[in-house]
Design a protein that fits this description.
Helix 6 crosses helix 8. The protein starts with a strand and ends with a helix. The chain folds into 2 domains: 189 residues, TIM Barrel; 33 residues, no CATH class. The protein is globular. The protein contains 12 helices and 8 strands. Helices cover 55% and strands 16% of the residues. The site of erythose-4-phosphate (E4P) has 11 residues, from helix 7.
Length: 228
């Protein structure tokens, strides 16, 4: 399972890329607004350091989405155009795909919607697990069901577990067979954590320092021998 960052903050992407664990980024209008930068400038900057950067259309009608999606795709070859799971979004996604543009169908909340995304040959479908949990449904069950339906139907569209809220969601997404999980930077940082790793590393370093302190300092043993 590939790890994507769900952010439009350049510094977070840069850190994830430096760690060597991040393969892509998902942005959306909310995240772009939060980052507080010009959309085009920010997406291009992020595309400069990582592939697979989803940028979302904000038009509502198919023809407008098409113009917008083509413009987003022209910014950089790493851009994947995100279209909403609406009839217009799906129709625009189909046309963008015909242009050779990779499409991510976002706001997916059911297996049937995921089948529609697959029917237009979408590159990615994004089930929003956390938002289903928020309304007392099982978001990761949906991710697992889409993976299972796609396997049975030999569908190539990648399943991206989105709206991830905790490290447990990441484990569940991997076990459900998701191709990608996109997560906030705070969740990515939490993936490193385990108390036994911290305790073990502390102990190793302390023991190493003890061996350094016990080493005879150069010249000290000769001086001691001369005294004798
Ligand atoms: C990703 O593509 C989505 O935009 C994102 O995961 C939504 O997450 P949220 O439900 O926390 O806003």
């Amino acid at each position: 399972m590939k790890i994507f960052l769900d952010t439009a903050i350049y510094e977070e992407v840069q850190q994830g890329v430096e760690w060597g664990v991040v393969d892509g980024v998902t942005t959306n209008p909310t995240l772009i607004a939060k980052a507080g930068h010009d959309h085009e400038e920010q997406v291009k900057r992020i595309c400069g350091i990582v592939g697979n950067v989803s940028a979302e259309v904000v038009s509502e009608r198919k023809d407008d989405m098409l113009v917008e999606g083509r413009r987003l795709a022209s910014w950089h070859e790493n851009v994947i155009v995100k279209v909403p799971m609406t009839p217009d979004g799906i129709a625009a996604g189909k046309a963008l795909g015909r242009d050779g543009i990779r499409v991510n169908v976002t706001l997916c909340f059911s297996v049937n919607q995921a089948l529609l995304a697959a029917a237009i040959g979408a590159y990615i479908v994004s089930p929003f697990a956390g938002r289903l949990d928020d309304i007392n449904e099982d978001g990761m069950r949906l991710v697992a069901d889409i993976v299972s339906a796609y396997r049975q139907q030999e569908i190539k569209t990648k399943v991206l577990a989105a709206s991830i809220r905790s490290p447990v969601h990441v484990t569940q997404a991997a076990l459900a067979g998701a191709d990608i999980a996109t997560m906030p930077f705070a969740v990515l940082k939490q993936l490193f954590n385990h108390p036994l790793t911290e305790a073990g590393q502390k102990r190793f370093l302390e023991d190493y320092r003890k061996t350094q302190e016990a080493k005879p300092v150069a010249g000290r043993s000769e001086a001691a021998a001369a005294k004798r």
